[in-house]
Write a structure and sequence with these properties.
The protein is built from eleven helices and 13 strands. It is of the alpha/beta class.
Length: 347
């Protein structure tokens, strides 16, 4: 990214490798809606000549002197969130906020990202995971962000066996939230979306009903489906700052909203006073940056290798060559109807 509103290519030195760190080169890359928010909405503030990207599968080219478990030539999964694992925040259970709120999110936030010939990974032993032999490279790329973020939505909402759940927004993150909700044993899963390919895949991943917001208000549709009772849990994976009003209205007292939608614009989130029980409805709103790190990546990779999840099915557009990243990014910006997620294989 050259500046807010403009993308292009910049030349920089190969990053230096600290004693705990690694330098990697990309094997596969995936642009994200977060990159779009960064460039065209200025969501994280003014940025200039910053390399974008936080979704990659890579090959290690250099490791620091204190790195134990990785060596040059290793093929690796790299999580989009790369915490500092010796931080106090990590010890307190919130590694994604190591160094301050959202500071576990380093790539294309306050340091250069992965859309480069070489990129830096801090705390390599904690933030890299070995690429399992035989893993589909498309599935591996989705383990950087789409899978862990969607699954974190299910964690934040605390999905329990038999819960009735609404998942608002079924782009890549929402689709993975549907898959996680099904794995956690939800009963009814209402997937809110309109694009046919996303709706079809949501059903394949475990959704029991599609709520198409083009056919009427989602509150009215879900309340009709639940005979006026509403749902136990809501995962918000799309929409805007006003989506929480609808989420709160369909949520039962005692329910939880788990938000993993990146709110890139506006100053306030709208929560209706009356639907929140005038502040006393025991309706919780939880929002969180997904956990990163090696253990998380290894566990989710196990779900892929066992056939429990198939994130590679979200890839609708494929490109070859680092120079195609910008074209793939523009797809995420323009969002054609047939898009779910693009993937760039680097030569």
């Amino acid at each position: 990214m050259l500046r807010i509103g403009a993308t292009g290519w910049v030349e920089k030195d190969i990053p230096a490798c600290g004693p705990l760190d690694a330098i990697c080169k990309p094997i596969a890359l995936a642009p994200c809606t977060s990159d779009v928010h960064t460039v065209w909405a200025g969501a994280i503030g003014d940025r200039k000549d910053m390399i974008l990207g936080h979704e990659a599968v890579g090959e290690v080219v250099e490791v620091g002197s204190l790195v134990r478990d990785f060596k040059p030539g290793d093929k690796v999964l790299i999580t989009a969130i790369t915490p500092d694992w010796n931080s106090l925040e990590a010890q307190g259970g919130y590694a994604m906020h190591s160094g301050g709120m959202l500071s576990g999110w380093k790539f294309s936030n306050f340091k250069d990202g992965v859309f480069a010939e070489y990129f830096h990974v801090n705390d390599a032993d904690g933030n890299l995971a070995h690429l399992p032999e035989g893993m589909d490279i498309a599935a591996a790329a989705m383990l950087a962000d789409m899978v862990p973020t969607g699954f974190h939505g299910a964690e934040l909402a605390d999905i329990q066996f038999g819960d009735n759940v609404a998942v608002i927004g079924i782009g890549p993150v929402g689709l993975m939230a549907v898959a996680a909700t099904a794995i956690r044993g939800a009963a009814e899963i209402y997937a809110v979306g309109s694009r046919k390919n996303c709706c079809d895949l949501a059903l394949e991943y475990g959704a029991t009903e599609i709520i198409n917001y083009r056919n009427g208000g989602i509150v009215e549709q879900i309340m009709e489906k639940t005979h006026g009772k509403g749902v136990d849990k809501v995962i918000v994976a799309g929409g805007d700052n006003d989506t929480f009003a609808e989420a709160m209205e369909i949520l039962k007292p005692g329910g939880i909203i788990g938000n993993v939608n990146y709110l890139g614009e506006g100053d306030f989130v709208g929560v209706p006073r009356s639907q929140w029980g005038c502040g006393m409805g025991h309706k919780q709103l939880r929002g969180g940056l997904m956990p990163g790190g090696r253990l998380r990546a290894e566990k989710l990779a196990g779900l892929v290798m066992s056939g429990r999840i198939h994130p590679e099915k979200m890839i609708t557009h494929r490109f070859t060559g680092l120079d195609k990243v910008e074209e793939a990014l523009m797809l995420m910006k323009d969002k054609p109807r047939d898009l779910i997620k693009p993937l760039v294989i680097v030569d």
